[in-house]
Structures are given as structure tokens and as C-alpha cells.
Amino acid sequence: MKIRSSEIVMSAVNRDQYPAEGIPEVAFVGRSNVGKSSSINSLLNRRNFARVSQTPGKTRTINFYLINEEFFFVDLPGYGYAKVSKSEKAGWGKIMERYLTGRDELCRIYLLVDIRHEPTNDDKAMYDWVKYFGYDCTVVATKADKISRGKYQKHMSVIRKKLGLADEKIIPVSSLKKTGFDILWDDITNTYSEHGYEITVD
Ligand SMILES: Nc1nc2c(ncn2[C@@H]2O[C@H](COP(=O)(O)OP(=O)(O)O)[C@@H](O)[C@H]2O)c(=O)[nH]1
Ligand SMILES: [Mg+2]
């Protein structure tokens, strides 16, 4: 994928702040610290675009990144950070629910989990929530450099079991080694074309 431009269009909390309709989007979600910002930066060949946060759990807005003036990446707020209050958790839920309700332009959600660990109950709840709202969801296993390639399958079957996946693919990526992002890009462009959007690849 050739990235000609990437810009942060909107940092939205409320629905009326979402960008104009008609431009397709895919969204990224996962636990704080899972490597979401790093993965978005790797996809876009940018260093510090989606901020790689030193203090997890701080992002409480929905960030829309306009890519090549053709489609959006939607950076959803992370969850599962221990040190947040009840009211902050409720706020997160409201922001997410508002976004997930009837978002016509949303073609797929990528749920990021750490390849090393069994997904948490929060991850499982997130996966079920996305399916409940009727969106397609693909799991991306981050930090793949932390285990040897020979262990990928074993770790991915743990992920598969916990989330209740059947034969859906899981895409392993490493932002450190820059691996897996070509496969993730293929999945993203296929998703857009399945939804009838023509995306310029190069
Ligand atoms: N080894 C390794 N570390 C990673 C990778 N991706 C992210 N990290 C580290 O994990 C931490 C959280 O990353 P970040 O992208 O900010 O996660 P976010 O909170 O989900 O946006 C940072 O210290 C990153 O350097 C990866 O692919 N491999
Ligand atoms: Mg982040």
C-alpha cells in the first residue's frame, strides 16, 4: 500500500463531531498497551503519528485518520487499564456505544490482542460486543517478535479458543520487526472492496 497522505481529521467524543458520511473506515481497538498506536504507525510508515503512549489509558476520544484522502482509520480508545475510575469506565462505554451504533461507513473492526497471552475477559467482551452490533471483526495478534515463529500456532489457538473463533484468520504482526503488515493491508483493502469501495493501492 502506498501512503500518499495521512492526517488526523477529528478527535471526536460526540456523534456530531464524526466526519462527513460517505468515506469508508476500519477501526482498531484493544487493551491499553497492546500495541495499537505502534501498529497504526507501522501500517502508515509513520513514527509518531498515532502517539505511542507512555501512560496507557489516557486516550478517551475517537481519532479519525484520513489516509490518501480516500478512507479512514479509526483509533478507538483502549480498555482494561487498571487505574481508571468507575465513571471513566462508564464514559468509555458510552463513547464506544455511541460510535458502534449504526456506523454505516464502518467496514471492519480489528481487535488487537497480545500474541503472548490468553485474551482477557475484557477482550472477549469486546469481541462479543462488536459481533452483537453486527460488524465484521478480525483479530490481530501483536508483538509477534516476542515469541518464536514455531510457537505462533499454539498461541493463536489459545486466542482462538478464548474468543470463540471458528476458522476466522488471526493476523500476527510485529511493529518492532515490521512484519505482518502487508497481510493486514491486504485484509483492509479486500474489506473495502467487498463493501464496494474502490481504493487506490499504489
Ligand atoms: N516488542 C514489541 N513491543 C511493542 C510492539 N508494539 C508495541 N510495543 C510496545 O508496547 C508498548 C505499548 O505500545 P503502544 O503502541 O503505545 O500501545 P497502545 O496503548 O495499544 O497504543 C510500547 O512500549 C511499545 O514500544 C511490538 O510489535 N513488539
Ligand atoms: Mg495508544
From TrEMBL:
Please give the CDD domains that the UniProt record associates with this protein: YihA_EngB (cd01876)
UniProt keyword annotations, A-Z: Cell cycle, Cell division, GTP-binding, Magnesium, Metal-binding, Nucleotide-binding, Septation
Identify the residues that the record assigns to the EngB-type G domain, covering every copy.
22-194
Q: Which domain of life is it from?
A: Bacteria
List, alphabetically, the Gene3D superfamilies matched: P-loop containing nucleotide triphosphate hydrolases
One Pfam short name: MMR_HSR1
Question: What InterPro entries does this protein map onto?
Answer: G_ENGB_dom, GTP-bd, GTP-bd_ribosome_bio_YsxC, P-loop_NTPase
Q: Which cofactor does this sequence's record say it needs?
A: Mg(2+)
Q: Which SUPFAM superfamilies match?
A: P-loop containing nucleoside triphosphate hydrolases
Q: Please describe what this protein does.
A: Necessary for normal cell division and for the maintenance of normal septation.
Its family remark reads: Belongs to the TRAFAC class TrmE-Era-EngA-EngB-Septin-like GTPase superfamily. EngB GTPase family.
What PANTHER family does this protein's entry cite?
A: ENGB-TYPE G DOMAIN-CONTAINING PROTEIN, MSS1/TRME-RELATED GTP-BINDING PROTEIN
What is the protein's name according to its record? Probable GTP-binding protein EngB
Native species: Tepidibacter hydrothermalis
